[in-house]
Write a structure and sequence with these properties.
Elements (H helix, E strand, L loop, with lengths): L7 E7 L3 H12 L4 E4 L23 H12 L5 E4 L3 E7 L2 E6 L4 E9 L3 E3 L7 H4 L4 E2 L2 H4 L8 E4 L4 H8 L7 E4 L8 H9 L3 E3 L3 E7 L2 E7 L4 E3 L2 E4 L3 E3 L3 H4 L24 E3 L10 H24 L1
Parallel strand pairs: 1-2, 1-6, 2-3, 6-17, 8-15, 9-10, 9-15, 10-11
Antiparallel strand pairs: 4-5, 5-6, 7-16, 12-13, 13-14
Helix pairs in contact: 1-2, 1-8, 5-6
Length: 306
């Protein structure tokens, strides 16, 4: 209990994705009192299948989370609450966590696993196909559309880089820039050598049926037949909770800087998952959650013996 007679958690975890749930699992098995706060907003909400996760390849992402939460039920020191976190304050050796219902909780450590939000193209019909035949990660979704005609949406260095990455899955690739491509001469030469076409016309809409993309319609009336589209417009932090606490942010990609134990420059504050690392795989997020949990438990043990 804290000075106000309220429970003092060993750790409060903000976010109930693979990173947060796996951290809660490891901490629960360490007999730590843990609260997981889940606002119900996940990056892969539009996705129908999660790939590259051993024993769970192809699972519905929501089903993976359901199983994760179910497996936490056996640990009586772990609680998952469907509520958002509006603010976190660092007070000497503990944190005050403000919840969306106006209440406050207290914790010795805080783990932020709120992830990132992808920047989406503003194209008519995009939401109809997003998660079914429009994707941002080749490693997650390109195998299902291998050897089919694919479009790559992007400009600057992002577009050519993603297009070249996709050559491992298909030889029928077209880069669509939706206007001036802003591609330098070196990248144009690389695309030409790999026979990747560039379509610079503005896009009017996307056409298809049952969530499956069939063609891109340009404003000049021309079309491009394709079975799927991949895009790369970057991403942003889903939450600024960590930033408001004064964590170091990588100026290049906007991700929270953490060490190999997932701890930040703010004592007692940890970060795991997509918010902290540029390789955004669910299985890596889960692994980072476990690493953070080990570090948190070790720190609590050390503090308890001092």
């Amino acid at each position: 209990m804290n000075d106000n007679g309220r429970p003092l958690y060993d750790a409060i975890i903000v976010g109930a994705g693979p990173a947060g749930l796996n951290a809660a699992l490891v901490l629960g098995r360490s007999r730590r009192h843990v609260l997981v706060c889940n606002a119900g907003e996940h990056r892969n909400a539009a996705s129908r299948a999660l790939h590259g996760f051993l024993t769970r390849d192809g699972i519905d992402p929501q089903e993976l989370l359901r199983i994760g939460r179910q497996q936490l039920d056996r640990y009586d020191t772990v609680k998952v609450q469907d509520i958002g976190v509006t603010n976190i304050q660092a007070d000497n050796d503990r944190f005050t966590v403000h919840l969306s219902d106006g209440s406050q909780l207290f914790a010795r450590k805080v783990l932020v696993t709120t992830g990132v939000v992808d920047k989406l193209p503003d194209i008519q019909g995009f939401e109809t196909f997003y998660g079914r035949s429009i994707f941002h990660c080749p490693y997650c979704d390109a195998w299902e559309v291998r050897d089919l005609p694919l479009a790559v949406y992007g400009r600057g260095t992002n577009g050519p880089g993603l297009a070249q990455e996709l050559t491992g899955w298909s030889s029928d690739l077209t880069l669509v820039s939706d206007g001036a491509p802003e591609i330098n001469g070196e990248d144009r030469e690389k695309l030409a050598r790999q026979r990747i076409q560039i379509r610079e016309q503005k896009i009017a809409r996307l056409d298809g049926s049952d969530g499956i993309l069939e063609c891109i319609v340009f404003e000049d009336g021309s079309t491009l037949k394709c079975r799927a589209m991949f895009f790369n417009l970057g991403h942003r932090q889903h939450s600024d909770l960590a930033a408001r606490l004064g964590v170091n942010i990588d100026p290049h990609d906007g991700e929270v800087v953490s060490n190999r134990h997932q701890s930040t420059n703010v004592p007692g504050l940890y970060v795991a998952g997509d918010a902290a690392f540029h390789t955004h795989f669910a299985i890596i997020a889960a692994s980072e959650g476990a690493i953070a949990a080990l570090a948190i438990n070790t720190a609590l043990l050390r503090e308890g013996s001092e």
